[in-house]
Amino acid sequence: MKIARQWSISALGPEGLRIREAEVPQPSAGEMLVRAEAVSLNFRDKLVLENGMGLPLEFPFVPASDMAGIVEAVGAGVTRFKPGDRVISTFSPGRIDGKGLGDARHPPYKTLGGYHPGVLSEYVVFPEDWFVAAPETLDAAEASTLPCAGLTAWFALIETGRLRAGDKVVVQGTGGVALFGLQIAKAHGAEVFITSSSAEKLERAGKLGADHLLSRDGWVERVLDLTADHGADHILEIAGGPGLAHSLNAVAVGGRISLIGVFEGFDITAPAAPFLLKAPTVQGISVGHRRALEDFVRAVDATALKPVIDGRYGFQEADKAFAHLDRGAFGKIVIEF
Amino acid sequence: MKIARQWSISALGPEGLRIREAEVPQPSAGEMLVRAEAVSLNFRDKLVLENGMGLPLEFPFVPASDMAGIVEAVGAGVTRFKPGDRVISTFSPGRIDGKGLGDARHPPYKTLGGYHPGVLSEYVVFPEDWFVAAPETLDAAEASTLPCAGLTAWFALIETGRLRAGDKVVVQGTGGVALFGLQIAKAHGAEVFITSSSAEKLERAGKLGADHLLSRDGWVERVLDLTADHGADHILEIAGGPGLAHSLNAVAVGGRISLIGVFEGFDITAPAAPFLLKAPTVQGISVGHRRALEDFVRAVDATALKPVIDGRYGFQEADKAFAHLDRGAFGKIVIEF
Amino acid sequence: MKIARQWSISALGPEGLRIREAEVPQPSAGEMLVRAEAVSLNFRDKLVLENGMGLPLEFPFVPASDMAGIVEAVGAGVTRFKPGDRVISTFSPGRIDGKGLGDARHPPYKTLGGYHPGVLSEYVVFPEDWFVAAPETLDAAEASTLPCAGLTAWFALIETGRLRAGDKVVVQGTGGVALFGLQIAKAHGAEVFITSSSAEKLERAGKLGADHLLSRDGWVERVLDLTADHGADHILEIAGGPGLAHSLNAVAVGGRISLIGVFEGFDITAPAAPFLLKAPTVQGISVGHRRALEDFVRAVDATALKPVIDGRYGFQEADKAFAHLDRGAFGKIVIEF
Amino acid sequence: MKIARQWSISALGPEGLRIREAEVPQPSAGEMLVRAEAVSLNFRDKLVLENGMGLPLEFPFVPASDMAGIVEAVGAGVTRFKPGDRVISTFSPGRIDGKGLGDARHPPYKTLGGYHPGVLSEYVVFPEDWFVAAPETLDAAEASTLPCAGLTAWFALIETGRLRAGDKVVVQGTGGVALFGLQIAKAHGAEVFITSSSAEKLERAGKLGADHLLSRDGWVERVLDLTADHGADHILEIAGGPGLAHSLNAVAVGGRISLIGVFEGFDITAPAAPFLLKAPTVQGISVGHRRALEDFVRAVDATALKPVIDGRYGFQEADKAFAHLDRGAFGKIVIEF
Predict the structure, then answer these.
(1) I need a labelling partner for D120 at 20 to 30 A (CA). Which of A334, B77, B305, C54 fits?
(2) Which residues form the Enoyl reductase (ER) domain (chains A, B, C, D) (predicted)?
(3) Interchain proximity A302–D166, CB inside 8 Å
(4) Which superfamily does B150-284 belong to?
């Protein structure tokens, strides 16, 4: 029986996060034992530690949803992978392709590091269906950033947004989803406008290829000016709350706003006039399905897209990693094993 | 020189609406002279009379956007119609197909009876491009209801919503757009839920084919119960304001909400959680283009859809027609010439 | 241990089809034991018996892919069904939603009654994933016709074809897929043209709602005449071989041709000019996925669509049923248990 | 009255092509006088000179459809352009957006340099609707290559094909459409396979960014090998005739084949099996509409795409330009004024 060290809490509250040891079972039929090489953090992981987000956590609870690792052993009937394969996890296990899971009364939120156990552990044993082959061109830390933040941006811009070269795309902020949005949009030939309240972060975004660096104040007017009033074809609306009103003013006629965020507590408010007159599509985004993650992985390899990692921490330093997340990161925070 | 009687105002305010006479020009190249047989009213017509809705009206101003009539004469180069043809107007002249008009700063609102002159006149002279052949199976009064209310429902449910048989569709209220929504959805094999605060109106909606008649209070719970928690695949959200919150609770995972209305003054408010977790599409609807109106006309003929007219008034009775509109109509109000 | 009677062959050739007995295993984890109530036949079943169609059959081989039955017992971990539930099989096990299975060199053809065992057996034990809930409004014989013929027509016209009311649809012939095409198109408000070389079959198709009954000779000209040269928006091309040339002449500008059939031996030939000038979409159809079958089932219930069964045979009469299939059926042939 | 020199024929046959002078009218209402700066040739131009392609040519007939120039004067009511603006022509005048023109019996082929007069003239007078703003980043010669060859590739890959990064795209040959296809696909992050019978042309294609250079013989096997049997997600099928059979063998499950060419005389032949089993979409392409050309123009500016010109000729050298076209060009042939 293998023993894995893992970060866990035994009750709600991030202050209880400790390294504990747990027994790792043999993989049953259809399952795989995977040795983690890297885990990336999302803001949601912090919220789950703090308040559980209404999820039915079992303690000791291991946080985090996004990992890259190596298949160590496979159970009977596993066909998609073999020992030695490099894999990444999927954020919503069981969502393979097409239609989403759950129903109107019970919206799906069955993710790793929430409804399911998390991945901040030296080993995990999960069904093979929960994994995707890692990109060949990324190291484990980079690969670990794809399942949630990367796929969210891809699903918004490409799977549902069907971006094309020349489209004018606004990306709000410089967090993980935003920088993936910038890079994915540039990989498809779009013209990218990025907003931030930090001049230094804007400068870094410019080095990643952003065409227009906009202060958060007054970005709507700037977008209208820079596009000769055409407006934005696609806006990654990450701010939530009253931000949608700004996006509706900036969006092009018939344009698209992707609503992204974990701000479940906040209400959205928006004026009706631009919603009716410009007839935009406002699309809620809940990460995405496994087939889209596979598409994204091969796009990463084809375009040499390199995820932006603001901080790499050792396995022992998970608390520092969470603290960095708390301060706000430029891109992603990763824990390497 | 022909003389046309027409209803017009010489200053803002519906109390000034009078029958006046106006000279009718000969149609220039590309134009047609059309004799009106029927005009249908929209709630918007009342708002334009009252406050102009910020539009650059020229006085005397003739209201109304939707008409059916007979081509009396055609100018040079007209190819799509000939004298004697039965036609209906288009709500947004010049919007032929595909992408909408205008830009992000100047959203398009160039409609008949607003930016352009209205149609509550015995004769109009407009470019041939502004007309569509009337359905063969409708009389003039019925045909006049298609350009705005009919097309709005068609554009929401079919052109953008791509409804299919078995879809669960919620229609809010029993106004003109709502009843077209009910009929169009039934013509495509959908299961229709209609809401109203009036038991009598619900009963009438049932006779038109609505499958489920729901009191306005508590309709969300009823939809969830009746669909075994699946929720609504498509909601025609006509209420505006806080209504979107209800629709977001009732919508199916991956479902669609079409936002329809003229409630420009009101804000939309909605909770973020269902928007993110169920990932619905919220689509603003600004009527639609001419090609979709042509599609709708042939669908009307193929399915024998009969628009619901709550009141037919003579040309002299336009004031009574507007008063009926003010009280709230079950379907459409039409003025016959 | 249960014993099931089943029709099987011990070597290629339909003449060897016999009732034999086989042991029925207990359902393992994720599996279900289903008692068959009805099996419908497809032309393909005959080809498999005759020549195996290049598939890796194991003998004794049980033919047929489409069944309706009752869940008798479920294995561990089954969540979607319970004993007593009425179910139908899926044609391509494992194809749940979205993207198709297999790859360019090994196109997927892993169906029941081919790559997988068939269903002409009193009992089957298959994974729960291979089943879908039966429609509430159909008896077992009717329900058994949906998995292949019904879904093929639905996938062509609705899932990929996005039919709308008023569309002009040509259905070739009066076989199982064709009559489902007719009924599905009518349920969505389309105008349907059906072709046959038999006046009697055309008359029967008329009673099912076909708008235009066309002799197989000269149908292209008739469609052009009857549509005032518009042409057909969607053609279910079932004839194969040189038939595509006719369809390309009849299709509307920007229209759609769904290519359906099991005529693997035949070549398709077509003139390039209408393909380039009218820019139609020609779409190969390989039945469809489980999610679409679920959509179709609820559409059947919502629209009261009744599959057309040309012959119902007892379990003992499978040979007569195959003989009927051989003569050509108006709709479907079903074996009831 | 202005006099324009223009190349024209007075009877069918390219040998009669001469420079003649013609009077240039003043632009009427809605028209513009445009001074040509460059004209690019298509293979079709050669066929029209040789045999008229069944089009109703008026003599003297001026060939060619694609030009870039400067607006010299505008007629009354022109709003989209003003003197001094740089413009390019549209291939199918009047096709603005959405649905194609014409009907099933009379497929649309109303192009410049065919049904309409051509552009190999120092000045043309056409409706403003027939023009689009030229890209800012291209010179006139480059800009003149967009209306037919460029838009065809864009319409196939992007407007209908909705390409995404990581897609595997096969481009057949190194003609004008093919090289645009290569460049557009690369601008969207695709992986491009190009075929040619010339090693030298393949090498040049590699310098333009093609990922895989394939000899025309055996390209199907190479694509299957290089993609680990996945196959091609999108194939620009330019060869026509029996080539479709190869493309059907190379296409991925659920992939797309765009059928492009002017080979109206040739039949298409293809095996039915891969068409049915892999369920690809085969899409006829007839250039595209004006809105897509506008989208493409802004994509060219956003991505710095530079059209490939194999030969630039002076106005006097039109005969040499046609001879080059006849020999086969790597990309486009342009005549500069």
Answers:
(1) B77
(2) 13-335
(3) yes
(4) NAD(P)-binding Rossmann-like Domain (3.40.50.720)
ipTM of the complex: 0.96
Q: Which residue of D has its CA nearest to C254?
A: D100
Percent of chain C residues past pLDDT 90, beyond the cut: 90
Separation between Cα atoms, residue A81 and residue A90, nearest integer Å: 15
In chain B, residues with a C-beta closer than 8 Å to the C-beta of D29 are 29
- CA-based nearest residue in chain D for residue B95: D97
Q: Which residues in chain B touch residue A226, judged by CB atoms under 8 angstroms apart?
A: none
What residues does C7 pair with on adjacent strands? C19
Give the tens place of pLDDT for each residue, C135-183: 999 999 999 999 999 999 999 999 999 999 999 999 999 999 999 999 9
In C, which residues are within 8 Å of A97 by CB distance?
A: 96-99
Given a cut of 60, is residue C333 above it in pLDDT? yes
The rounded Cα B287 to chain-centroid distance in angstroms is 7
Q: Is the peptide bond before A135 cis (omega within 30 degrees of 0)?
A: no
Q: In chain D, what percentage of residues exceed pLDDT 90?
A: 90
Given this model, what pLDDT does residue A239 score? 67
The whole-number average pLDDT for the span D14-42 is 96
**Backbone conformation region of residue D252, classed left if phi is above 0, alpha if psi is from -120 to 50, else beta:** beta
**From the CB of residue A25, how many other CB atoms can be counted at a distance below 10 Å?**
12
Cβ(B188)–Cβ(B268) under 8 Å?
Answer: no
Here the tokens at position C91 are 């044609």
pLDDT tens-digit map of C86-99: 999 999 999 999 99
CA dist., res. A312 & res. A316, Å (int): 12
B264 pLDDT higher than 50: no
Residues A194-202: what's their mean pLDDT?
Answer: 97
Cα separation, B296 vs D310, whole angstroms: 49
- Measure the N-to-C terminal CA separation of chain C; round to a whole number of Å: 20
- CB–CB of A325/A50 below 8 Å? no
Q: Measure the CA–CA gap between C127 and C194, rounded to whole angstroms.
A: 39
CATH code that applies to domain D2-145+307-336: 3.90.180.10
- Whether C258 contacts C285, CB under 8 Å: yes
Beta strands in chain C (DSSP E): 2-8, 18-24, 31-41, 66-74, 86-89, 123-127, 131-133, 168-172, 191-196, 212-215, 232-237, 251-259, 267-271, 281-284, 309-314, 332-336
The pair of structure tokens assigned to D4 is: 């324009």
- Mean pLDDT over C323-330 rounds to 94
The residue extents of the domains of chain C are 2-145+307-336, 150-284
- Per-residue pLDDT band for B239 (boundaries 50, 70, 90) equals low
Residue D264 has pLDDT above 50, yes or no: no
Is residue D226 over pLDDT 50? yes
d(CA C251, CA A67): 51
**B neighbours by CB contacts (3+ pairs under 8 Å):** A, C, D
CA-based nearest residue to C196, from C218, C166, C228, C221: C218
- Weakest mean pLDDT among A234-243, B101-110, D42-51, D121-130: A234-243
Whether A280 and B285 lie within 8 Å, measured CB to CB = no
Distances (CA, A) of C33 to B81, C2, C37, C88: 65, 10, 13, 13
